[in-house]
Specification:
seven-stranded mixed beta sheet; about 300 residues; alpha/beta
Length: about 300
Amino acid sequence: MAIHLTKESKVLVQGMTGAEGMKHTRRMLAAGTDVVGGVNPRKAGRTVDFGERSVPVFGSVREGIERTGADVTVVFVPPAFAKAAVTEAADAGIGLAVVITEGIPVHDSVAFTAHAKARGTRVVGPNCPGLISPGQSNAGIIPPDITKPGPVGLVSKSGTLTYQLMYELREVGFSTCVGIGGDPVVGTTHIDCLAAFEDDPDTELVVLIGEIGGDAEERAADYIRDHVTKPVVGYIAGFTAPEGRTMGHAGAIVSGSSGTARAKRAALEAAGVRVGSTPTETARHVLAALGRPARDGAGA
């Protein structure tokens, strides 16, 4: 089992014929993802050779769905075209839109996430690494060869920390790893993933990675306290961030105690979450909760 993405998922790539789209489509195919088509109106009707597999290019998402039964799209288009790309996918009835593009104006993200939600399309991102269900499917840019299938679910604002925890716990493995993105507006939240992992019978424990700024982690803590029965282990990036300054891609602004790593840690710990001070310590908390020796994961 996994959440949001399985071996049955059929994936389109909007922007597949661009440099980034080509590179990561090749990597997704190598990871076993069923990439069934690309979307580019200017190159519709062509076929792109990826070695052992040739992938057709369609003129629209709707055509791709009608011809292949696709239920997932991965968006590799420039920021100026992202709103139109996601809106098109939602209007075509896609189930999941994974928006890798960074630098999208916030008002565009507000518009397309609301539009997609109204049409029943889940958006992961924007400005995210995507998601991977190891051994099943990989939609985005997460390196597929640093972990294996296993009992841990992971939801993270940070792409880099997603990769690091996957590596730290590579001998344990993951059901699904979801990089939700750190922009001020995202389509899928920590809470959305916590709910899905709670319902997934093959996920035994959840790792939650947050960042300074905003109150997403505090809201997740409230949800964990009231609705999550599985163990949750957390990590918050930004303990050394100075107050009153915008930090990193998240655009996180820390003012007083609001949005600080310490405040988030306190909220999570009050909900019963074990929070690591470093990624390695976080991984060790996971191993302890699973009853596994340290040599099976962190520091191996």
